[in-house]
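From the thread on structure requests for the teaching lab: each student submitted one protein with a one-line request. Submission from student K.M.:

"Model Arginyltransferase from Helicobacter didelphidarum, tokens only."
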Amino acid sequence: MEYFDFLSDIHPCSYYEDRESQFRYLGIKDCTPYFYSGLLERGYRRFGEYYFVPQCPKCKSCVTIRQLVQEFQISNNMKKILKKNVDTFMQIRRPLTNDARVCLYVKYHTKMMNKKGWGMNHIDIERYTNSFVMGSEFFGYEMCMYRDGRLIGVSYFDIVQDSMSANYFFYDHDYERLSLGTLNIILLLNLAKKLGLKYLYPGYWIKNHKSMGYKYRFRPFEALLNEADFFDRVHWKRYD
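Reply posted by the TA:
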């Protein structure tokens, strides 16, 4: 296994207009599940063959959390979302690239540019493959959602050791009424529970943030308290 690391340039924060963000990246070829599990415990996320963690100079709002899978209990509202999606078909497989996936990603990102001010992201088959297919050989999966034979959502997730990591999810906003983002988390939690996994890493949580605060609904979870390096002990706090 070979890797290199670097710091990104400082750039405007995606979540707060008056703040700046910076990430530490690890480029890892043939990352082992054991090493990846240690990175997850230390707040890293995966995108292709790159693993990243925020190291913003003046802000610590993004908090790594991991949901306690075996203690998860579905709420009445979540049951309603499942009922709304009784005609939504799910397929889980190893990640692949095709025109339908790329077109849905472009449609989703264009909508988010207009809705939330996301930056331009020019993507083609090659860039899509590098982002979502490369680096997934040992542990990566995709879950595709279909409605009446039409692809309406794609979820990328990893399974390593005793954990699952939800990497990225995009969907067709024409089906926003189906609450597909929440559905994705419910399905991943249910799958992780059936597989006997201990944790689901859903990404970063920002307390009370309009876009990143929703993960608080999926308690119980643990929040990472320290920025641990490779050989540092990690400390977690439980939220019920």
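TA comment: The chain has a mean pLDDT of 91. The chain is about 25% helix and 35% strand.
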